[in-house]
Amino acid sequence: MSVAESLDPLGGLWSLLAVHLRILRKQNGMSQVAVGTLVAADHKTVSNWEAGRYHPPVEALRILDVEWKTGGLLEAIHHYAKTMQAPAKFRAISEYEEMADVIRVNGVGFIPGLLQTAEYAREAFTTAGILEVEKQVERRLQRQDLFTRPTPPYVSVLLSEVAVLLIPPSLRRAQLGKLLEISDRHHVTLRMVAVNAGLHLGLEGDFYIYSTPLRELGFVETPARGRLVTEADDLRRLTVAFDRTSGRALSPEATRAKLQEMIEVSNDDMA
Fold first, then answer.
1. Who's near 178: CB < 8 A, 6+ residues apart?
2. Where are the domains of the chain?
3. CA-to-CA distance for 90 and 226, rounded, in angstroms?
4. Does domain 3-83 have CATH number 1.10.260.40?
5. In whole angstroms, what is the distance from residue 70 CA to residue 138 CA?
6. Inter-CA distances, 97 with 215, 242, 245, 262, Å
7. Predicted TM-score (pTM) above 0.70
8. What's phi and psi for 56, nearest 5 deg?
9. Percent of the chain with pLDDT over 70
10. Domain 86-270: which CATH class?
11. DSSP for 213-266?
């Protein structure tokens, strides 16, 4: 059975779109070569669309909707696949996270999920009104197993000082300690963006960029919900935001010194 034939239409809207592309093509008696000719793409590209490896551009889907008289079905599925948010269970994104060779993380308002203690994660989910908090916390901590894999990905983190300052006082010492411990790993670069860095693109929100053998994609994260980012233009915006924010960040050494200073202050407050 091919990858396209094994796709589950219930696996998500992108999978549903890929399945419909294959079914409609066959129902209309067209080969992948013929579809490619119609939409100005080669047959390998059409094959990748049907296998869910790549997402077809909306312009191609509009042509196929007219050709196959679908009433705009393919364009509609594309629209909802691109704009609808995904639940914070991270079922889809966790698969890409496991495959990633490089992960870039931008944390603005919250400590990123990959760096959270169980207590911080629990507080974030509770604040967001999420049901089954303990299950969500467990899933979030399971994602962090990538740090201890035999061949872990390279992880580059830009962490806003604002997110650190917003850590609840009762959770601060443990969360700061975890950040310091993670920053000491050879495959992690943690850099803090100080409050006095001024306005920058990274302030627009928390997000991840994953580089995998199959593709590059992003994930915009909040405590409750998130959105998978696969469109080229949107990915470019995330990449530009990350790179420009990187220019405002402290060095890894200065970041570690800053975290150590914050831990000492926190210890003094607890004394």
1. 115, 116, 117
2. 3-83, 86-270
3. 8
4. yes
5. 43
6. 12, 18, 22, 30
7. no
8. -70, 145
9. 88
10. alpha beta
11. SS-EEEEEE-SSEEEEE-SHHHHHHHHHHHHHHHTTSPPHHHHHHHHHHHHHHH
